[in-house]
Input
Amino acid sequence: MDHKDFYNLGRKIDLLEGNPSEAELRTSIGRIYYYVYHEILRWVNCETLLLNAYYESEILSTHKRLIDTFAKVSKNTQKLIYGKICRLIGALHTLRCNADYQLHQKIDMQTYKSTLANFEDLKEACEQLRPDMFQIDINTISETLGTTQTTNAEIKVKKRTIRILD
Amino acid sequence: MIIIHPSFFLGRYHMAQPMVEKLPEFIVTEGRKDLSLEKFTYLNNLIKKMNLVRIEDKAEALNRTGIIYTYMNDFYKALESFQASLQYGCTEISFSNYLQALERIGEYKKALNEGEKYLDLHPNNRRVFQTLFSIAHKYPSDSSRSQVLKFMNYQMDSSNFDSDYKNIKDELESEMALLKNLEIDLEYYNLISNLAFVEVKKIQIGPVDFHTFLNDAAQLSIMIVAKGISTSDIRLLNKNFDLRIQELIDNNVISFDKYAEQMTKFVHSFGIASDVTEAA
Output
């Protein structure tokens, strides 16, 4: 199976008439992450610098191993771009974990849009190092797309700032 | 013989010193800042008018000037204005703004200490406590936790006690335990949190939430979620955030090794807040 199909499945909600359901949004976020995961793993497997760092690691979780690989390569090369990739994989992984496990946490169209925006940045960062990656048409969704009504969130730690007011 | 100028009777001298100008609606409206040249010109003119007010209006005019500079992302001038405002008369509002201005220039520790000093004298002050709490919660440390807890009881005794604070103690303690367990360098963590927060405040007016989550790669993820921003703003924030990190490395404020080592333990990212108001 071509992992690109995960991405296409994830973006199907853009074509829906009306607002997507929360389950559809959660599924989309998860599928987009797994597309990213497999695309980057494919890159790791064909580049010695990354592959060595990946196999040096003794971490069992492949997701954490991927994150650690880019952190390690960033340190070894002193190149921030690998750190940026590491950071954005981590952010997308968290969005996917929330989408799959945190059913009490609010996931709505804004979460989906945030996922896509961070994905676009990750794609751009990867392409700086390897231009043939992410052969997909991203077409960021319109800012005016509607949002879904979802249940209230349960967030592990929440910090609110207050405004400067007159 | 004393000659009184006729304009005195016409109130000309009085009129030469205008009342404090109101702040324009766009400055206090939640959402994306409009940092266009047109708005900057307008705001600079407004600052000039604020300088002309009567001495009794100085404190308020300087406080509003600080708010204008904050909107314009000139955080140092905002700080100066709030400090000057306090010289003419300290209010809880201008003091809270002063604390937030300190946070925006990276002086969050000083903000916490100043907030503590104020609350030592006025322990029941709700607004300053909220500001102190808001800052302390973003920058966890043993001292920021104790600064919040020191004044918690005064807030809890209040008749309109905010239920948001009910679980503060447990929250702060569990967060500290988690950060220590993950062996996160708190000084570094707080520095990067401040950097990310300030980048958001450069483009947005309104609430900003820190959503902290431990993902199944055992990495703490801090998503800074802001209202009224767009997907292109997230991309701008990502770009500016990485540029600021690069500057810190270039200026030897942080080492590359520290950056890479801590990256596996926590990451910051940006998101758009939900349209529907969340329960606190």
Summary: The longest helix of chain A spans residues 22-45. The longest strand of chain A covers residues 157-160. The CA atoms of residues 110 and 147 of chain A lie 7 Å apart. Residues 141-166 of chain A have pLDDT under 50 and may be disordered.
